[in-house]
Amino acid sequence: MALACFLSRSAETALRISHCLRKKKKAMLANPPILTRLTLGNLFLIYLSIFDNAVNETIAEE
Fold this sequence. Notes:
The chain has one helix and two strands, in the order H-E-E. The chain is α+β, with helices and mostly antiparallel strands.
């Protein structure tokens, strides 16, 4: 009995958490970060993905 109660409550909690995360993800995708100039002297990272029909590049400052 206790296990069934625990499982049903954990499912409710997980549902609330996933709903909250979905809202935050939607808000983040609606307002992407603004592109800015890199600061001279700071290190930056280049992420590069190459496929047969697509190339993707991202530059991030540390």
